Amino acid sequence: MVIENKHAFIKRLSLTSVPLPANSITEANETLDSNEIPTTRVEAWKYTRVAKLGKIDFISERKEVNDTSSYIIDDSALTLFFVNGYLSTEISDNLPEGFTCKKLSSCSSDDLQQTKVTHKSELFNALNTAYLNDGIWINIKNNTVLDRPIQLIHITKGARQLTNFRTIITAESFSKSSFIQGFFSEDTDQSFTNSITEIFVEENAFLTIDKIQFEEEKANHISTEFVDQAKDSTFTLNTITLNGGLVRNNIQVEVNGQNCTTNLNGAYLLKGKQHVDNHTTVDHIAANCNSNELYKGVIDEKATAVFNGKVFVRKDAQKINAFQSNGNVLLTDDASVNSKPELEIYADDVKCSHGSTTGQLDEEAIFYLRARGLSEKSARKLMVSAFIGEVLGKIENESVVRYVERLLKERFEWDFN
Questions:
Q1: How far apart are CA 194 and CA 85, in angstroms?
Q2: pLDDT score, position 2
């Protein structure tokens, strides 16, 4: 049963036609009916104001983008384009062997029974489930090694567009694959992208996702990843946020098998009045696993950033190596950051550490560079490039790195050469 909810900002949207589990849709509608948009009194949203989203009269329209060439991150990748949450062209029949891909709206209910999305008190997850535009279901078969990346390019076009999109990826046992997700916008004003990615990394599978966020300054974006890792698997997520008015990245990783490796890396480079909030959770449920988190931010003008990373180590999860680091550089007195790395450990045989640093560029180092012929502006660019370069060095796909460097040069005039 669909419950008529009280949120005016979704009154012009259509309920999902995707065959998600009936209990999920019911839970989502109950959450929407019983929860307000979170305020800063809610701990998880203490530094991120999203109440304004409830005051926008959103619409959801199908649109087309005439020229997509500038959005292609890797020319060698198999590329799918989505505009306002809808696949802009039909999926190619010429798919790699061992790779299955179809729209969520074309899936059977059996395809979509496996889900990790939680709805209780999670209003934006519930919004995604109840008002899902569409999405993509991808399955990498057992023992498949894809020799080129899968590239999912999302474009939001038009004013007041609300896009609820979901990606479901299953990497079956002993497979190896890499994905690129790009989020962009055209002619937006008060748009809102609400994206969920569900990821299942099965036994001995290797899965890497490189994500670039480069939407316009009047765009809002909440992105959530749910990751389930089985034993002996390796999962890597690199998140690069370069533009967007309000961006919130929620990452929740459950490490359910032994001998897993989890890598979360992020860089956020902000100016104007941008606000970017990275919330990560790595839950070590099984023993003998490693997790590594490295997030770095450069905040200019009146921009603000938030990092909240939590690592759980459960009672039976012995011999865990978990490392978490967040570093920030403030380029002006008006820039600010709130950083809160956390460890919650219930096992006694572990190696875990976390750290956070926030400061300004080293003036002595700048003076040293200027003494060797660089202008002050060039010296500062070089220092910033070196600081962020540690995160970019974690990205194995050189095409992604080159694309990020081009965007940095366009937006910030930072040259990595």
A1: 10
A2: 45
Pairing between β-strand 320-330 and β-strand 99-103 as defined by DSSP bridges: unpaired
pLDDT of residue 95: 79
Distance of alpha carbon 381 from alpha carbon 414, whole angstroms: 6
How many Cα atoms are found within 13 Å in the side-chain-facing hemisphere of 12?
12
Question: Among 197, 200, 192, 194, which Cα is nearest to 181's?
Answer: 197
Distance CA 202, CA 170 (A): 8
Task: Report how far residue 174's alpha carbon sits from residue 169's, in angstroms, rounded to the nearest whole number.
Answer: 15
Q: Summarize pLDDT for 176-194 with one digit per residue, the tens.
A: 999 999 999 999 999 999 9
Tokens of 114: 């496996």
Q: What pLDDT score was predicted for residue 381? A: 75
Residue 56, judged by CB atoms within 10 A of its CB (0-12, 13-18, 19+), counts as: middle
Q: In what order do the strands lie in the sheet with 191-201?
A: 99-103, 134-140, 162-171, 191-201, 219-229, 246-255, 275-284, 304-313, 336-345
Q: What is the 3-state secondary structure (H, E, C) of 265-301?
A: EEEEEECCCCEEEEEEEEEECCCCCEEEEEEEEEECC
Q: How many CA atoms lie within 13 A of 158 on its CB side?
A: 15
Nearest Cα residue to 188 out of 56, 50, 47, 69: 56
Q: Which of 350, 349, 333, 9 is nearest to 160 (CA)?
A: 9
Structure confidence by residue, pLDDT tens digits, 149-178: 999 999 999 999 999 999 999 999 999 999
pLDDT of amino acid 384 = 78
Tokens of 197: 């990615």
Alpha-carbon distance values, 400 to 78, 244, 297, 395 (Å): 14, 19, 18, 8
pLDDT over 70 at 17, yes or no: yes
Q: What is the pTM of this model?
A: 0.94
